Amino acid sequence: MPNQPVLSRRDEYSEATRQALLAAAREIFIEQGYQATGIEAISRAARVTRGAFYHHFADKKALLEALVIDIQVSATATIVARARSKAAPWDRLRIGAAAFLEVCVEPAYRRLVIQEAPAVLGAPRCRAIAEAHAVGLFIGALRELQKIGQFDCDNVDLAGRMIAAMICEAALLLADANHPAQLKRQINTVIERILECFRRAK
């Protein structure tokens, strides 16, 4: 394996500062919301100066975008890890879809990625980020199934985007449910039945 680059102490400190800002923003945004949170509050929570904030991020919007990307990277890793527990492609899709629902229900993903980010970053930018990570992973799985003749749909990308959007919407319902465990089972049943509609019989 090639040697990993060694960070200088200055680079290590800089990265630690950036991570502290992301962690502070994540916590405050979830609790108070993006609009109600100021840069001063984030800097204070991260124990850094405003100057340090602006060294890493042009503004609060840039911080939210970086945070959304960070959350998407983590979500994708979670989905991949769970999907790999199955050998058959269709089983990996089912497990991956269920894992995506679990990810969407997490407070950071639900509040920041689904609710806050579209209004701040714009729907096109949020879509691009999602399709570079978790949603793109889902679409990719459908493309692979289509290649091996197991997914019957002319526009796989459209199907993937629509099903992913449905899962995100279901996550919002689940967050406010009186009986979340029951609703989650019902949501997963709906997801599986929709996927089965596209499954091509062998």
Could you please describe the fold and organization of this structure?
The protein is an all-alpha fold. Helix content is 77%, strand content 0%. The chain is built from 10 helices and no strands. Helix 1 (9-32) crosses helix 6 and helix 5 (89-105) packs antiparallel against helix 8 (134-147). The longest helix is centred in the N-terminal third of the chain and has 24 residues, at 9-32.
Low-confidence stretches: none
Oligomer: single chain
What Rg do the Cα atoms give? 19 Å
The percent range for helix content is: over 70%
Number of strands: 0
Question: Which shape, going by the Cα principal axes?
Answer: elongated
Q: Which class do the helix and strand fractions yield?
A: mainly alpha
What pattern of helices and strands is seen along the backbone? HHHHHHHHHH
First-last Cα distance: 42 Å
